[in-house]
Amino acid sequence: MFRNLLSRLLDPAPPAALSAQDAEVAIAALLVRIARADDHYGDAEKLRIDQVLARRRGLDTAAAAERRAAAEMIEAEAPDTVRFTRTIKERIDLADRHDVLGAMWEVAYADGQRSADEEALVRLVAGLLGINDRDSGLARQRALDGMGLSET
């Protein structure tokens, strides 16, 4: 189903909008990349990605897990984060990118641990998505508050 998504994402032709389903898999691949940044991709992070995907598109648990599994394969084959993120930026509108950033912060903190690697990657991706530091910080705080976690 998502076999050609990576080739469509990396097509050098002028960017075309992605279907809603393909956009969600591409976004999920970014979430997987964030979760894997600290070399520990556990059940808490997988569950959080599933919850984000279910919430964003009203998916049931099985459909969200299926989409995450496709995203894991896409992420493993995706090029460097800079190129992959810029390609997504060109195909997803700004309002959705802000929502995606909040989801990235949720995934970064899903295991209840602060990881400098995950935080640094979220900050890098935020800039690549065209989101300024202030808005990224606000999204981070909303994610922490929503998860009942504190700054420390």
UniProtKB/TrEMBL annotation:
<feature type="domain" description="Co-chaperone DjlA N-terminal">
    <location>
        <begin position="25"/>
        <end position="141"/>
    </location>
</feature>
<dbReference type="InterPro" id="IPR029024">
    <property type="entry name" value="TerB-like"/>
</dbReference>
<protein>
    <submittedName>
        <fullName>Putative tellurite resistance protein B-like protein</fullName>
    </submittedName>
</protein>
<dbReference type="InterPro" id="IPR007791">
    <property type="entry name" value="DjlA_N"/>
</dbReference>
<dbReference type="Pfam" id="PF05099">
    <property type="entry name" value="TerB"/>
</dbReference>
